[in-house]
Amino acid sequence: MTVNLSKGQAISLEKKDGAGLSAVRMGLGWQAAKRRGLFGSRTREIDLDASAVLFADKEPVDVVFFRHLVSDDGSVRHTGDNLVGGAGQGGDDESILVDLQRVPVHVDQIVFTVNSFTGQTFQEVQNAFCRLVDETNGQELARYTLAGGGDYTAQIMAKVHRVGSGWTMTALGEPARGRTFQDLMPEIRRYL
């Protein structure tokens, strides 16, 4: 059963039997908003990019994004860059896989961001979402939907962080400005 998250809401990543999840996928989906024009409605390709920044004691230690697809330790993997988004069918346009059991013990937080690499604002994006899937069985665990576009070019979507011996996901949904995860680092630090 999927939990529809609201901004700031957190969910535990433990299964009903008390065992922790071993592998999760953070999926991102979107489509370009239709625009009215002289020749009817049309859309423009929008290149959103998903990134995962790994932190240890509030310091970045690695990042996974379209130019660095696998973390140095191999525990986090980006499935590849989508330059145009989806057709609005609800599937993931970009995904980042996290093997929670392989994440080094010093990494205590992973922050997921999405940026408009081509510089369009989220006013030009529709049906954008971030979802967390149990990678072992394909079950969607949580979904955060970006409601209403805004005059910003990025979102700090969510973070997965250690709580005791397990992990918790928190929906952040914070608008930001920037074309890459590097541009967002000052904003990301506020949520660590």
From TrEMBL:
It comes from the Bacteria. Residues 1-179 form the TerD domain. Pfam families: TerD. This is Tellurium resistance protein terZ.
